[in-house]
Design goal:
By secondary structure, the protein is an alpha/beta fold. The chain folds into 2 domains: 130 residues, Rossmann fold; 37 residues. The chain is built from 8 helices and 4 strands, in the order βαβαβααβαααα. The chain has a 4-stranded parallel β-sheet with strand order 2-1-3-4, with helices on both faces.
């Protein structure tokens, strides 16, 4: 039975394009039906396509990824996952952007040591990059808030006739629908304002 070669692509959101990864796999000679794609965060390995692929990986199969951060973004998880695939399943992994990370070559002790060392360094870098991105986002939001930029839904001002209309509504002189029309409010906003008044 021939060993199979699989490609695994991941992008963080549905808006991002995985085409660059797919092209690299096809150029490497991977059949399109053997390419698995997830469109979700790399914070953990609870991904549908990745789980399916891992379940069909067998000894001496090859898993190809474009770069180490496509596998995941959590340093410890990447290292554990790498070991699980290479040591437990006994499949190989090739990282196209980092030729030294190719477990099909140099299977002696030194080759394995070098491969593991590079993996740990790159995994650490991938996680640090993720931490820096989060930190920059936090700093950007804090800076925007300091400059008066508001986030979230804009606050809706209470209509000038709100109290009168609400009193009539509470006293059952008018129905909810009429009260909303008089105040020009949608149901959710109307009931939210009434609740806030009670509080």
């Amino acid at each position: 039975m021939n060993n199979k070669i699989f490609g695994y692509a991941r992008v963080s959101s549905k808006e991002q394009n995985e085409e660059r990864q797919i092209v690299a796999f096809k150029e490497y000679g991977i059949n399109e039906r053997d390419i698995y794609i997830d469109k979700q965060s790399g914070k953990d390995f609870e991904r549908k396509q990745y789980t399916t692929l891992k379940n069909i990986l067998r000894e001496n199969d090859v898993l190809v990824i474009k770069s180490i951060d496509r596998l995941g973004r959590n340093y410890n998880m990447i290292v554990d996952e790498w070991k699980d695939i290479t040591k437990n399943i006994k499949a190989d992994i090739i990282v196209l952007d980092m030729p030294l990370l190719d477990t099909t070559k140099n299977k002696d002790l030194l080759g394995t040591f070098i491969s593991d060392l590079i993996l740990q360094i790159l995994s650490y870098v991938a996680e640090q990059e993720r931490t820096f991105i989060k930190q920059r986002q936090k700093e950007g939001i804090a800076s925007a808030k300091n400059n008066g930029i508001k986030f979230g839904r804009p606050k809706i001002e209470k209509p000038h006739n709100f109290d009168n209309v609400i009193n009539e509504w509470k006293n059952k002189k008018i129905k909810s629908k009429e009260a909303m029309e008089l105040l020009n409010l949608k149901p959710n906003t109307f009931y939210s304002m009434v609740k806030n008044c009670k509080n």
